Amino acid sequence: MRRLVAIAVLLGMGACATEAGLQGKTWTWEQTIYNNDTEHTPNEADAFTLTFTADGQVQVTTDCNTMRGSYTIDEHRLEFGQLAATRMYCEGSQEQLFADMLENVTSHFIDDEGRLILELKYDSGAIIFR
Question: Which residues contact 91 (CB under 8 A, 6 or more apart)?
């Protein structure tokens, strides 16, 4: 329950991230917090990143492969298109977990600490990037 309150506080304190606010920076996955007190963090620091380009593309790195696809923004709503990926196999990779999280993103904002918060479907949690 404490995590649910923490997410509610995070969601209430941030400003809407504009498309320009997302660009020009590589965002690094820090953690994902779900409302059921489940948490995921990357096993390898700095392995998972998002880079948003001005032409509506997102470049993704993981602990195994790279991905690329499109994104659309409508105010605070964010949607990723189909992501194409290289297909190298890596034992113990968290890549599929990360890709599944991105498929469930519905909106975004940048909090008061400058972190990118991607909110998940059904208010089920948030992916936090620094």
Answer: none
Closest CA to 114 of 124, 128, 125: 128
| Pairing verdict, β 26-34 and 105-110 | unpaired
Q: Are strands 125-129 and 66-74 parallel, antiparallel or unpaired?
A: unpaired
Q: How many CB atoms lie within 10 A of CB 59?
A: 15
Total-model pTM: 0.84
Sign of CA dihedral 50, 92, 120, 130: negative
Report how far residue 78's alpha carbon sits from residue 19's, in angstroms, rounded to the nearest whole number. 9
Return d(Cα 36, Cα 109) in angstroms, integer: 22
pLDDT in tens, 67-94: 999 999 998 999 999 999 999 999 999 9
